[in-house]
């Protein structure tokens, strides 16, 4: 299945606060890097919705960069599967499909499963601290009804899991996977129902890692990710904006 966009022509001025924050945080960086970061944050936070078209002239004006720099920024985040080019129609935010869900969850299992099964020496104590902090933040956010904070806490938890690998490269890969997953969440009608069940399952994983029950933790993350993937597909199927994949199995313009 793939998702039809509900907001194909967003107001580009919504990115102005993001632009100002990026300019303050990354003073001295080039226009391409700053433009790519603004676009990345716009997609990940949902300011730019899946399927939204990104008109060059208006977007370049809001970002304060040239159209050539904007095109280079598009090239950068296209490699991260956040935007795509449509022939004769320009750039749009990626529309996830069912194949994307399966690919992202296979990537998660490879990254998180390996980190849990073979943790790098010296990483466990810090990872357990970070995982525990994410669980407590998730509990607070769940009880307060703060869906965005609950999602952020869950992302932080799973990055902490991958930190057991001791690999900055694997952490960067996990961040990219999580960015694509955010595109999926922005297409769901009932994101609180998705995020709530994982808070206590995260807590159970913390206990296993702290007790060095690595084989059991690895098995647990496999079941966890299968259930998470299944819930996404179930919620997606109930979404008012979903439709089946065509017979080819790959919709025109879908991202993977």
UniProtKB/TrEMBL annotation:
HTH gntR-type domain location: 29-96
PROSITE patterns: HTH_GNTR (PS50949)
A Pfam family that the UniProt record links to this protein: FCD
SUPFAM superfamilies given in the database record: GntR ligand-binding domain-like (SSF48008), Winged helix' DNA-binding domain (SSF46785)
SMART domains: FCD, HTH_GNTR
Database matches in PANTHER family: GNTR FAMILY REGULATORY PROTEIN, TRANSCRIPTIONAL REGULATOR, GNTR FAMILY
Protein name: Regulatory protein, GntR:Bacterial regulatory protein, GntR
Organism: Kocuria palustris PEL
Organism lineage: Bacteria, Bacillati, Actinomycetota, Actinomycetes, Micrococcales
